[in-house]
Specification:
There is one protein chain. By secondary structure, the chain is α/β, with parallel strands linked by helices. The protein is about 35% helix and about 20% strand. It has helices at about 20-25, 45-50, 65-80, 95-100, 115-125, 200-215, 230-245, 260-270, 285-290, 300-310, 330-340, 360, 385-405, 410-420, 420-435, 445-455, 460-475, 490-500, 520-525, and strands at about 5-10, 35-40, 55-60, 85-90, 105-110, 135, 140-145, 175, 180, 200, 220, 250-255, 275-285, 315-320, 345-350, 370, 380, 510-515, 530-540, 545. It has a 7-stranded mixed beta sheet, with helices on both faces. A 6-stranded parallel beta sheet has the order 8-11-12-13-14-15. The chain has a 3-stranded antiparallel beta sheet with strand order 18-19-20, sandwiched between helices.
């Protein structure tokens, strides 16, 4: 009996590969089959040594691991020249000719893997009956292309996570699928190639959810558009609310402009804050760009749904840089419109020319140049020069450091309301790169660079500088070093502490005068002139917090 290993190299230790688990579960009774996961950061020599005793090693391949997978395959062949290497997954299902030509690759399965891999297990080493298998024989490449589709009902009563140690699931991201396919045809996305949405049996979905809720913590749904069917969505939401455990978080990809009003009401009435996390691909606000990539979206409806749910749902919004017909000014408009929704996380991704996607097939039409190596990222086009894209990278770095890491939320909200947040972040990114490395800096560097930049950006704006200082103190648990010199007026500080009856024996305070209404800004981002003060409280245990006007009535501190 042949010894066959199913494996993959995950991007991070916290990730789990669902495909490997499903294939193992479907074929484990055939004998000789094992599975194991690694990461792209593991030692490749050690990985290869562990795999070298098998007869066949089967890798699940994606854009983030194909380069590393091929490196491991080369080492494997050097350790055991007789070993056979099989590749499968989206990264080798299209434009596979250069990959199968490599000496370290023996077989490739294209497309959905359940049926071909099952046939491979049943017939190996006789390969004649294996659909969608590419293999080499006597110097020739053979491709047994067939139109096959796995019946998802065959996954009934199957739990792909039953082979994991239950205690290992808690600190990892568990992935679950309830459907396959996507009803949309966005030309930059591989999901657009399968427009028929197929669903797993509901009882199996619920049983697997129960298992993951019991043993896991973060559960991410792989459905490309989870809210396509209203009743299906509500049934699973209701099930989750009835059975979730403390600490569970559920992540969904949704299309916001088609969210049914019944779903909105359900979430507003019943879902606790922080339980659900929605990933929403806005991509662009430019309708010409949307039409050019066969994408439909109503941004006004999308924004309306986000605003109705953002007090309950953690939002992750995505934009794509480099779409057809989107020039610098169009990207600026898309970014500023989306940023003003103030999502907890905004990802600015660059157009990638994934194998198999229509945008890759017609790249020459738009003058696109892209990196030939994974992740096939845009370099330039008829709409964006290389210099402009390089500047967007600097903006992206500043966005990640200051917004997505929640270090300067008040500062950036103010900028978005009073200036151009796009210009500010782009110039801040450039300024940051002149002062420090994006991947190596201290927290003090982050705020000092921001403060220095605001002096150049708008030296006379006192509100902007006060908000930078406020964000600096609010980001710490312990009272940090006074790098901006706001603690010099001890008489003012002591007067405020005495006037408000603050417990300066138990807590520490940062207090300084300002010229705008802080409470109004915090609640509405509006800036009105007023005589006010910023009071930040440190208790040494939890994160520092603002003491707003409505709380500034003695005695204050006993209620903290």
């Amino acid at each position: 009996m042949e010894a066959i290993l199913l494996t993959t190299l995950n991007a991070k230790y916290i990730h789990l590969n669902l495909a490997v688990r499903l294939l193992f579960d479907l074929n484990r009774k055939k004998g000789g089959l094992a599975w194991k996961e690694y990461t792209i950061k593991d030692d490749f020599q050690q990985i290869a040594r562990e795999m070298s005793t098998y007869d066949v090693v089967c890798f699940s391949c994606y854009i983030w691991n194909i380069t590393q997978t091929l490196e491991v395959a080369e080492i494997l062949k050097s350790l055991n020249p007789g070993i056979k290497i099989l590749l499968g997954g989206p990264e080798v299902s299209y434009e596979w000719e250069p990959v199968i030509a490599l000496p370290c690759v023996d077989y490739i399965i294209t497309g959905e893997g359940e049926i071909p891999f099952g046939a491979f297990m049943d017939n190996y080493p006789d390969l004649q009956a294996v659909p969608n298998l590419i293999y080499k024989r006597e110097g020739h490449i053979h491709y047994q292309k067939q139109s096959v589709q796995f019946d998802l009902r065959l996954l009934e009563h199957r739990n792909p996570y039953q082979y994991d140690l239950p205690e290992d699931l808690y600190n990892k991201v568990s992935y679950i699928e309830t459907s396959r396919g996507c009803p949309y045809k966005c030309e930059f996305c591989l999901a657009s190639l399968d427009n028929k949405v197929r669903y797993l049996p509901m009882d199996t979905i619920k049983n697997n959810l129960l298992y993951l809720m019991k043993h896991g913590r973060v559960i991410k749904f792989l459905d490309r558009t989870f809210n396509v069917k209203k009743d299906f969505t509500l049934e699973l939401f209701d099930f989750i609310l009835a059975h979730h455990k403390p600490g569970n978080v559920f992540q969904f990809e949704i299309t916001a402009d088609i969210v049914h009003p019944d779903i909105i009401r359900f979430i507003q009435d019943r879902v606790p804050k922080g339980l659900f996390r929605f990933e929403i691909g806005i991509q662009t606000v430019n309708q010409e760009s949307n039409r050019e990539v066969s994408r439909k979206q109503n941004f006004d409806k999308t924004a309306g749904v986000i605003k109705q749910l953002d007090q309950v749902i953690d939002m992750h919004l995505d934009l794509i840089v480099g779409l057809p017909l989107e020039y610098w000014k169009d990207l600026k408009f898309s970014f500023e419109s989306t940023f003003k929704l103030y999502p907890p996380e905004l990802q600015l991704g660059f157009l990638k020319f994934l194998k198999g996607t229509p945008v890759r097939e017609k790249y020459e039409r738009y003058g696109y140049e892209f990196d030939p190596n994974p992740p096939y990222q845009i370099i330039r086009s008829n709409f964006m020069s290389k210099e402009e894209l390089d500047n967007i990278i600097l903006l992206e770095n500043a966005l990640e450091i200051y917004w997505n890491k929640h270090r300067a939320l008040n500062t950036l909200k103010y900028v978005a309301e009073c200036y151009s947040i796009f210009d500010f972040l782009q110039e801040l990114g450039t300024f940051f790169a002149s002062r420090s490395l994006f991947h190596r800096h201290t927290l003090k560097d982050v705020f000092q660079i921001l403060f220095d930049f605001t002096n150049e950006f708008c030296a006379e704006d006192r509100v902007l500088k006060d908000l930078v200082v406020m964000d600096y103190y609010l980001y710490h648990k312990q009272k940090p070093q006074d790098i901006f010199g706001v603690e010099g007026d001890r008489r003012f500080i002591n007067k405020c502490i005495e006037e408000l009856g603050l417990n300066h024996h138990k807590f520490r305070f940062i207090i300084w005068p300002i010229t705008f209404d802080l409470s109004k800004f915090i609640h509405s981002t509006a800036v009105e002139k007023a005589t006010d003060r910023i009071i930040i409280v440190f208790d040494g245990r939890s994160k520092s917090r603002l003491l707003l006007q409505q709380e500034q009535t003695a005695p204050v501190m006993p209620v903290l």
